[in-house]
Structures are given as C-alpha cells and as structure tokens.
C-alpha cells in the first residue's frame, strides 16, 4: 500500500453526502421535534424530570452539584438521577457527533453515523455503508425505546458500532487510528451509563475475542494479536478513566441499592438474601422462544400490548353487531385494544430487525468468511438464549447465579440488542461479499435460493397455517368479563399475523429478485445497492411508524405534565423548610410528586435496598409510625372530596427520644418497627452501632431545622441533659458527615433507615454535609483521563496517518 495525496472528491465528499443523507432521514422522521418544537410524552423522561427537579434547581442557583436529593424515596444519592462530572469532557464529543440535535433526533442520527463508521472501517463503499447504517439504526427496538423514554439506553446502543469499528480497524488495518476510534466509541458508550447495554456489548466482544484467539493460534498470528490487544486494552482503560467518576460512584452506590446484597435473611434460614436483583423480578420480561420470530415477522404476536384497529376489522364489525353505534365502535377500536398475546406481561412493541436483514443474514452464513460468521452467529444465538430468560431457564438461571454482574440487570428481553447488532452486520457483509465477489462465490445461485427459501418459506408457512395458533392472551379473561367480543379480537390477532407474514414474504422476494438479477448480470451493482437500500428503508420505516409517528408528538409536553394542580398549590402553601408528601394512589411508580414536593415515593430502578425493605414491610402496609418518622405531613389521596389529607402526628425534621430499643440484627431492626412509638423510641442495631445508654430525658429538649439544602442540613437544639436525636433523614454513611458546633462527630443509624446522634446537654448546632470522596476522586481521575484521551486521539491520528502500514495485517481475515 502506498501513501496517496488527499483527494476531496474521493476522500471527503462521499462521507459528507452520507452525513447529509442521515440528516435528511432524521429530519423527516423527527420533523415535529426539529421544526414544530414538539415533544413526546415519554414516560421515563417525565419521571426523570420529576426526580431531577431539585438537583437541577440547586445547580442553576449555585452552580454546584447537589449529589443528594430528598425529592424521592425520602432521600437518596443523585448519582443515577442527574449528576454532572465536570472532569468528564466526553459530553463535548457527543455534541459534535450529534450536531447538537435535540434528543430523539440526535439519538437516531448518532446511531446512523456510528453504524456508518463501522462499515466504512470495514472498507465498504460509502453508498453500501449508508444502506448498512439504515439496517442497523431503524430496527424497531431503537424507535420503541425512544417512545418509552429510554434515551440513555438508546445512546449507549448507538455507540456500540463505533466501538466495534475501532476494534476491527485496529486489528485489520491501522492499529493507532483504530485504537483511537475504539477509545472514543467506548468512552461515549460508557458516558450514558446504561451498564446493561454495555454489558451485552462486552459479551459480544468476548465472543469475538474467543474466535480471534482460536484463529490467531491456528494461523500463527497470536503474537501480533496480543500486541494489538494490549494497545486496545490501554485505549479501554482511558475510556474507563474518562468515565471513572460516573462508574465509581455508581459502583459504590450499587452496593447499597436493590442491585446489591440484602442485609436481611431468608425466612426460616440463617442465610443472607443473595446480591443482585430478585430472580423473578429480573426475568419478568422474558422473550418467548417462538416470539423470536418477531425479528422476521413484526406482528407475529400482535405487536404492542394495545394496538389500534380499523373499521374493517372483525372487532369493529362485532361491536356494531352488538348494537354499539358505529361512531362509538370506531372510537373503541382506534384508541387501542389488547392485541399482544405473547408471554410477556406487556410490551411497547416487537423487536423487528427486518425481513430483508433476516434473509441476508441467512445468506451471509453461506457466503461470508467463516471467521466472521462464527462470532456473529454465535453472538446472535447467545442473544436469543439470554432474551428467552425464564423460558430457557437452565442456561439463564446459571448465568444469573454465577456470571459476574449479570444479576444486576432486569428485563432480559433487552439482550436482543446483541442480535440487532450482529444480524444487520452479517447481512450487510453478505451484500458486500455478493456485490464484490459475485463471480468467485461457488454455487451462489443455489445459496441465494436456499437463503430466500428458508426465510420466505417460514413467512409462507406462517401465512398458511396461522389459524392453528390459539391467539389467547393474558388479558383475555378481563376482556370476556367486560363483555368484549373476544372471538373477534382473536380473529384480528390472526389477521395481523397473516398480514405481516405475507408482508415479510413480499419484501424477501423483492430483495432476492434484485440479487438474482445482479448475479445473472441483468442489473448493475449501483442499482442493486440502491434497490436493496430503498426496500430496507421502506420495510423498517413503515414498521417503526406503527410505534412512533407524527401523531405521537405534542406541544408543551413537559410543561403540561408538570403544571401544578390545585393539590400541589394547596400543599405548597406550607412554607416550612422540609417535610414530605406521599401520593397514595401511586406512590412508587411515579415521580411527578417529586417535582414540587419531597416525596416518600418516586420512580427509580435502583432505590436504596434498605428503603425498599421499608416499603415492602411497612410503608406498603400503611404503618402510621413509619409515616410519622419520615416526616410525612401530607397525603395526596386521589379522592375528589378530600384530595389532600394531613397525616396525623408527623414528627418533623428531628426529635429527641426517651429510650433505645436495642436489637441484634437487621431483621430484628425492621421487625421492631411494627409495634413502636416513633416519637418515644429509637430502634438501634447495637451489633453495628453500640450504644451504652438506653434511656434519656427528652421532656426539656427541642431541636429545629434552620437551614436546608439538598446536601447540607443545619439544626439548632437546646437540651437540659444529654439526649438522643433522631433525624427524619435517610442514613447513608458513604458521604454524609455530621458536625457538632463545627467539629466532626459520629452519627448512627436508627429505625432501619434514619440517622441518629447522641448529643450533649446545652445549646448547640448540628450540621450534616454530603461530600462523598468517591465523587471528588472520580471527577479528578475523569479530568486527567479526559486530557490524556484528547492527547492520545490527536497523537494517534497524526501517527496513524503518517505511518500507514505497507500491507494489510492478517490478524483479521477479509470478509
């Protein structure tokens, strides 16, 4: 290979055109966002806004990070809600790569761009890479998670192709440019902190590494692979370093969250409850084994949990036969009925990678180099098995119990993320191979026929024999009780399956026809690439529009959702520094309450483990003493006649108690809250917090909160004698430091979740400051790593351009 001078038309223009294509696709799909200032009612984003409100207000007011918030679950670290790490410069990289587009539009644009980078790194032409980027990016899951508000998950997935592109480029071509690209991709993948998606990416890389090691040993290139692997390892360390603050605080907090080990014991045993999530909770969303066919036929199981129907549906006709007026019947079917009949409790839609992608994937198994096929097919199979969860329990229970870190994640159906990377990848490799090596592939006609026959044949069989399925869904009993025409609904489910089976059959036939005519020299490569690209776009785009279309976008979504209600306004008339509110109708699955009030409940996937124990054993059972000790002053009842109720006997921000109830274990500590007077007694696990004095004089003592900030509390008290104060604040040792008259002092845990402190007589000031060392250390390492990464990227690119290899390095074989 010889070094050639830069040519704009050859080296830059194709990529500029690709970016413009991606911008146009993004602008058309998300035109309401870009041109009409509309947004989505994304459930998770709305809950995020509620939980993050106090943190954001503090940042806007002071320019500092709160790191702790009392807006949810009576208080918790802000690390996984909305914490900024100034030392992490990767946010600027994302702004550049996303063209600073607004959320949703920016997510899909970055997904397109990163997929394009991967395919160009493979050596594909710009036009073919554009087609591949569409296949990667417009899989239904990428769109569905945006509708649900899983924006960070979306962006974590978006950067996976860039990571793979850097990895492959470093092994196949230029080590230094590849390592720099790998470092940037991994940095951005980690930046959005959806570790479950990163975990799946690492599993795929492990499969890739195993295959590469086997081939390197077989072909005598292990030393070269090891050398390049070490450089990539350094790049990975830099990427982790840039995100170290976020990862370190997350790791520290996870030990105290529901993802960590419980301190309680199993009933009737002396064994601790295992670390990680509960197995049943983690596997609740498991993809059905036969449900995997949705990758080929989107409505194989009825699409989303509720789906609209048209007036030509059996259900509409059945309603009219029942005497329902046509207008009312139309309204019923168009607002959505439970069409999903699969094994999951509910779903926003199927994972559909595309009929054409499935066809090309199978073709790739026959014609692509086995070294590539090995890891891409193995990764796909692994993805299926993981997603099946409890439906493939022997494998998945083993993974959950023994594979490091796997028990921290829930909704295992998300493992299909691996397949939505591997399947389009092998599919586009197959198209590339066919275009470039048409005349050198032995038996290409036969392989094309077999691939089309397998995938189109499955679709045809489903279309012919769909009537043999039961179409019985989990919600059918409720529909029958509500006197819905269940037979008609099941007929429409069958119709949806048949329709999509024929649809996929047609797309496969069209794509296979294009390739066949190319093989027979009847069409040019340009026409085939363009034709397959258009078919892919139409196929994926039209399915995506079922789940996210222009009618879903609205004006002022966030403002309307958080517009204060009369109930909010009534509660906010109370100007005390700090008190708590419980939303009784839905306390633990919403964070709207947290937008205006300090909430007993909230919405978060990683609340404190001890607080979850308190919810399960006491708050859910309406233990009034627990409400009192949490300073729950108001209850939102949901009753129009009395929408707000004052909780009797709320104990305030802090109070003196008269006695200590000593217990010897967390179980005893939690159980003791069942029958106790929170105003008189503090329950203390003396095995962890020894306290000699157990009786105190509280009659002539008072304490008042005089200053409140999320990460700072100041109290003033006066007591005639030594006393024990209980604070209505959640105990969290990793960061909260107590001070008495400015001097550091120890504090203890009481009542399972609260802080307490033994204090001397007299007039004194107590302060609590939240200044976790993990944040300070992590942010410093992030800053140093950001500087190093910037230098390494610039240096690697300069060196890589200057020192081009004279020949391809045979560490990774060509496709």
TrEMBL record:
Membrane spanning stretches: 12-30, 99-120, 127-146, 152-170, 175-192, 198-217, 229-248, 349-367, 372-389, 409-435, 447-466, 501-519, 526-543, 781-801
InterPro entries the UniProt entry points to: Uncharacterised_YfhO (IPR018580)
Signal sequence coordinates: none
Keywords: Membrane, Transmembrane, Transmembrane helix
Name used for this protein in its record: YfhO family protein
């Amino acid at each position: 290979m010889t070094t050639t001078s830069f040519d704009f038309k050859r080296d830059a223009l194709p990529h500029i055109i690709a970016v413009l294509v991606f911008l146009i696709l993004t602008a058309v799909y998300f035109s309401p966002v870009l041109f009409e200032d509309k947004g989505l009612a994304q459930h998770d984003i709305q809950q995020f806004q509620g939980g993050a409100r106090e943190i954001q207000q503090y940042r806007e007011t002071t320019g500092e990070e709160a790191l702790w918030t009392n807006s949810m679950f009576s208080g918790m670290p802000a690390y996984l809600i909305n914490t900024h790490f100034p030392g992490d410069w990767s946010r600027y990289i994302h702004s550049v790569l996303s063209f600073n587009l607004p959320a949703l539009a920016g997510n899909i644009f970055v997904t397109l761009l990163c997929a394009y980078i991967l395919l160009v790194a493979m050596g594909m032409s710009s036009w073919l890479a554009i087609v591949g980027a569409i296949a990667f990016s417009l899989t239904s899951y990428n769109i569905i998670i945006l509708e649900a508000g899983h924006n960070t998950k979306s962006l974590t997935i978006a950067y996976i192709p860039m990571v793979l592109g850097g990895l492959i480029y470093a092994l196949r071509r230029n080590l230094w440019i590849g390592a720099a690209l790998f470092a940037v991709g991994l940095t951005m993948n980690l930046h959005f902190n959806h570790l479950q998606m990163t975990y799946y990416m690492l599993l795929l890389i492990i499969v890739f590494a195993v295959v590469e090691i086997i081939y390197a040993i077989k072909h005598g290139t292990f030393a070269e692979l090891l050398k390049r692997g070490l450089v990539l390892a350094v790049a990975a360390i830099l990427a982790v370093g840039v995100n170290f603050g976020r990862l370190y605080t997350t790791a520290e907090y996870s030990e105290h969250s529901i993802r960590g080990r419980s301190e309680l014991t199993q009933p009737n045993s002396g064994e601790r409850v295992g670390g990680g999530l509960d197995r049943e909770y983690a596997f609740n969303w498991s993809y059905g084994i036969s449900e995997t066919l949705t990758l080929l036929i989107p409505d194989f199981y009825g699409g989303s949990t509720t789906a609209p129907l048209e007036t030509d549906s059996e259900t509409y006709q059945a309603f009219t036969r029942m005497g329902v007026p046509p207008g009312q019947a139309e309204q019923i079917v168009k607002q959505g009925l439970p069409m999903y009949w699969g094994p999951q409790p509910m779903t926003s839609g199927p994972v559909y990678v595309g009929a054409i992608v499935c066809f090309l994937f199978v073709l790739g198994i026959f014609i692509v180099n086995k070294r590539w096929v090995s890891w891409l097919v193995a990764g796909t199979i692994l993805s299926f098995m993981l997603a099946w969860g409890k439906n493939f329990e022997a494998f998945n229970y083993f993974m959950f119990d023994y594979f490091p870190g796997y028990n921290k994640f829930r909704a295992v159906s998300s493992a299909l993320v691996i397949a939505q990377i591997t399947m389009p990848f092998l599919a586009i490799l197959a198209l590339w191979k066919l275009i470039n090596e048409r005349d050198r592939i032995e038996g290409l006609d036969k392989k094309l026929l077999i691939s089309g026959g397998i995938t189109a044949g499955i679709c045809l069989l489903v279309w012919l024999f769909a009537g043999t399925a039961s179409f019985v869904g989990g919600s059918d009993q409720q529909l029958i009780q509500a006197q819905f025409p269940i037979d008609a609904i099941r007929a429409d489910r069958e119709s949806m399956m048949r329709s999509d089976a024929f649809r996929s059959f047609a797309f496969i036939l069209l794509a296979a026809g294009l390739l066949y005519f190319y093989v027979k020299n009847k069409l040019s490569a340009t026409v085939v690439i363009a034709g397959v690209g258009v078919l892919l776009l139409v196929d994926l785009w039209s399915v995506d529009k079922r789940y996210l279309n222009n009618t879903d976008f609205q004006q002022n979504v966030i403002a309307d959702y958080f517009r204060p209600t009369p109930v909010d306004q009534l509660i906010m008339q109370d100007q005390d520094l700090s008190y708590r509110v419980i939303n009784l109708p839905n306390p633990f699955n919403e964070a709207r309450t947290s937008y205006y009030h300090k909430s007993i409940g909230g919405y978060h996937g990683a609340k404190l483990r001890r607080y979850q124990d308190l919810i399960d054993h006491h708050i859910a059972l309406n233990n009034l003493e627990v409400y009192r000790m949490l300073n729950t002053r108001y209850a939102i009842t949901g009753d129009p006649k009395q929408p707000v109720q004052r909780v009797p006997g709320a104990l305030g921000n802090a109070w003196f108690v008269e006695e200590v109830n000593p217990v010897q274990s967390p179980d005893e500590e939690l159980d003791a809250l069942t029958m106790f007077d929170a105003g008189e007694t503090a329950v203390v696990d003396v095995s962890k917090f020894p306290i000699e004095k157990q009786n105190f004089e509280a009659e002539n003592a008072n304490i008042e909160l005089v200053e409140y900030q999320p990460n700072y509390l100041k109290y003033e008290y006066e007591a005639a004698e030594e006393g024990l104060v209980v604070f209505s604040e959640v105990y969290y040792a990793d960061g909260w430091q107590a001070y008495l008259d400015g001097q550091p002092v120890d504090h203890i845990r009481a009542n399972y979740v609260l802080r307490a402190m033994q204090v001397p007589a007299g007039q004194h000031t107590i302060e609590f400051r939240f200044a976790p060392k993990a944040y300070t250390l992590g942010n410093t390492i992030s800053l140093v790593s950001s500087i190093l990464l910037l230098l390494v990227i610039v240096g690697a690119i300069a060196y890589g351009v200057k020192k081009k290899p004279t020949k391809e390095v045979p560490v990774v074989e060509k496709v």
